[in-house]
Amino acid sequence: MRQTQGFMNRPIALELDRVSHDFRTSDGRVYRAVDDVSLSISAGAFVAIVGPSGCGKSTLLNLIAGLLMPTSGRVRVEGHDQQGLNRRATYMFQQETLLPWKDVRDNVALGLILAGLSKADAHARADDWIARVGLTPFASHYPSQLSGGMRKRVTMAQNWILDRPQVLMDEPFSALDVHTRQLMETELLALWDVGVAGTTRRTVVFVTHDLEEAIALADEVIVLSAGPASRIVARHAVSLPRPRDLRELRTTDAFVELYRAIWSVLRGEVIKSQASVGAHV
Amino acid sequence: MSSQGRVTAWRVGIAVVVLGAWEGGVAAGAIDPFFLSRPSAITARVAAWIMSGTLWPHLWVTLEEALLGLAIGGVLGIAAGFALARAPLAARVLDPYIAMLNAVPRVVLAPLFLLWFGLDIWSKIALAVTLVFFVMFFNTLQGVRDADRALVNNVRMLGASERQLVRHVLMPSALTWILSSLQSSLGLAMVGAVVGEYLGATHGLGYMIAQAEGTFDTTGVFAGMTILSIVVVVTSAGVSRVERRLLRWKH
Ligand SMILES: Nc1ncnc2c1ncn2[C@@H]1O[C@H](COP(=O)(O)OP(=O)(O)O)[C@@H](O)[C@H]1O
Ligand SMILES: [Mg+2]
């Protein structure tokens, strides 16, 4: 039987222990983006982080990725204190990150090439992944010749080809139109469901500002407060059965109920963040 | 008519009008050919130089100096640009010195280079290098600094070492800038070579022009300038073909 809810007793993949992060702003002041966040994520869980824009979601992912060092507190990856980049994770950034001078095949193969695989082996495996994301006819195209949705697929293949056990995603589909977006979400869940080598699922930390997307995808939704000094204000388990049909899911009673419950918390934070943006302008 | 056809028609039209007015002005006595020569005489002179073969050794020397100057200045400029882009502290320390060096008018250097490197090609190459170096240096520096942070972070997350980062991201990113400055660098290399020859040489287009000026032979001066322009236009077209090939991912 497919195990969906049993991840609570799996080993801890990621742990944030009272993590805070300060930025120095251009006018020399200190801006506390993330304040005293503690969080542990079980291996194989799909966790979504939501919060108003500018609250520190990307900062949190960058801390988990090791691209930023916490000002205080600790990040532990599979029980070890983080040093340098998180080599157990891939990271799908909010921005476009495909190398414009490499074609689809070379972009997908990049991580393997960097790891020292021969070009022939890397390309063979890249071609498998290009087929899995349905882009075989475009293997020799450059990113500038692809649509936004296609570029996201290539980026997904570029990340997932590495078989790393953790996947960080920062609003990966926010730039896409509604239909492409739902398609990509479905593909993401399918990929996640297969796991690495068909067995263990990857741990996914998925950042979004869209609560619907968060509930539809995740096992757990974490709500961050409006910045500055963003904290975790709520954690909600999402016990919707898997596999999920994303076309139908959003109208089910269970979904709507969860949405109401989480939105009642998130709403206040969104209003606060809009008020503070208004005050600055 | 296609837009390319219209552009070509206008180009030819402008040449015909300007050259026609010039030639007509001389024929009508309004322009003194002693000071300005005339298109027919200039064309005849260019043809004579080509037919007699006197042009080739001079042209070859100038091209050799310019291309060597471009290559040496390019390699040094790109290497220095990369080094300083990866060492921000050194870049900050050296910044005023680089600005000072770049402010030196190169014509002033020419006699010094003649003294140091002699009358043959190396003094001209040195002059071309001082011109090309800074253009390449600044463009490489800017190109590396300008590399998209998201691209850099992504490739680092995918597992790139510092060397691989340079190879897969910083180099190609800087290449756009370097290539876009290649045309102007080529022009500058020609300027360096010709100015050097003009001030003291035994061969080269600059030498030919200087010889003509020495005998108030305006036709010879204009003929030399014409050949120089043609050479720069032709080589630039070659450069932009190379550029398009290397940047084909942009289209
Ligand atoms: N490099 C930086 N320097 C200064 N402030 C920053 C920097 N990066 C982000 N911030 C600030 O930190 C806050 C959180 O940013 P971010 O994590 O990108 O938010 P989110 O991803 O939730 O939209 C924002 O107010 C932003 O302006
Ligand atoms: Mg963000």
Describe this structure in words.
The complex is a heterodimer of chains A (281) and B (251). Chain A folds into two domains: 12-88 and 166-279, P-loop containing nucleotide triphosphate hydrolases (Rossmann fold); 97-163, no CATH class. Chain A is globular, with a radius of gyration of 19 Å. By secondary structure, chain A is of the alpha/beta class. Helices cover 37% and strands 23% of the residues of chain A. Chain B is built from twelve helices and no strands. Chain B has one domain: MetI-like (MetI-like fold, Orthogonal Bundle), CATH 1.10.3720.10. In chain B, helix 4 crosses helix 10, helix 10 packs antiparallel against helix 12 and helix 11 (205-214) packs antiparallel against helix 12. Classes of the chains: A alpha/beta (281), B mainly alpha (251). Bound molecules: adenosine-5'-diphosphate and magnesium ion. The site of adenosine-5'-diphosphate has 13 residues of chain A, from strand 2 and helix 1.
Class from secondary-structure proportions of chain B: mainly alpha
Q: How many separate domains make up the residues of chain B?
A: 1
Order of helices and strands of chain A: EEEHEEEHHHEHEHEEHH
Give the averaged pLDDT of chain B, no decimals.
92
The rounded distance between the terminal residues' Cα atoms of chain A is: 55 Å
Strand order of the largest sheet of chain A: 6-7-8-3-9-10
The chain pair with the largest interface is: A-B, 26 and 20 residues
Beta-strand percent range of chain A: 15-25%
Which residue ranges of chain A are poorly predicted, with pLDDT under 50 across at least 5 consecutive positions?
Answer: 1-5
How many alpha or pi helices of chain B? 12
Beta-strand content of chain B: under 5%
The count of β-strands of chain B is 0
From the 3D structure, determine the CATH topology of chain B: MetI-like fold
- Specify the biggest β-sheet of chain A: 6 strands, mixed
User: Could you say what the CATH architecture of the largest domain in chain A is?
Assistant: 3-Layer(aba) Sandwich
Low-confidence blocks of residues of chain B = none
Distance between the termini of chain B: 25 Å
Average pLDDT of chain A works out at: 91
